Amino acid sequence: MNRLTNEDLISIMKKFHKYRMDANQKSVIQGNLAQLGTKEKRRHISTFFKPVLSIIVLVVFLASASFFALEHAKAPGAPELSIKANTGIELFKQANESFTIQENKNFTLKENKDGTVQFEAKGKKVGGIEPLNEDEMVKSINQQNLMTNEQVEGYQYPATLTLDHQKMLDVVQILHYYFKSPESKLNYHVYFYTPFFNDESADDIARSFIIYKDGKLVKGKE
Q1: How many Cβ atoms from other residues are within 10 Å of residue 132's Cβ?
Q2: CATH code matching the domain that covers 88-217, chosen among 2.60.120.560, 3.40.1000.10, 3.30.230.10, 3.90.226.10
């Protein structure tokens, strides 16, 4: 095979079909190249700024959390934050008070989860104890068919005694004692159903009612 000379190669190349782009085609290609360059630039900027933005957000969050913790930290000796008690039971839970009362073989004490107590005999309710605020005590008395309503002495705490006439099948009357706590705005409602309790037995048990605060005996104010 004979080797081609330069003149032979030039002669052959002149026979190839020539392609020429018009002005519109050139403009389209230039536009595509420009867009590609812009996208690459944006991607580069986004890749750079995303970690920086994440760090800024993290710093702001930590600063806010530290401020919140500082604002809500309890200073030594500062009073405890408390929610306003709307009922006697809520107030009882906040006041950190407790109580005791004499129990005998004729009935048992059943303590409920809300802090109230029931007196029970042979599976029936025969009385109980419930903490009331001032409004609840007034409402309790106003709902009764009163035969007696008086302030009484000789008990551990200031007391109001009411006798409520009932028309229930097993209950003729209810003896209500309201003992005012000297340490809080609570009034402890201790009540007895008759005929299971009579005036004397109810009075003996009512006199044994004692309040404690923070585990210490609360004495009545003289």
Answers
A1: 21
A2: 3.40.1000.10
Going residue by residue through the chain (222 aa), what tens digit of pLDDT does each one get?
566 676 766 676 666 555 566 667 667 667 766 676 665 555 555 555 566 566 766 655 555 544 333 333 334 444 444 466 789 999 998 889 999 999 889 999 999 988 899 999 999 999 999 999 999 999 999 999 999 999 999 999 999 999 999 877 778 899 999 999 999 999 999 999 999 999 999 999 999 999 999 999 999 865
pTM of the model: 0.63
β-sheet bridge partners, residue 216: 213
Instruction: Give the 3-state secondary structure of residue 84.
Output: coil
Cα separation values, 100 from 25, 40, 92, 158, Å? 100, 81, 14, 17
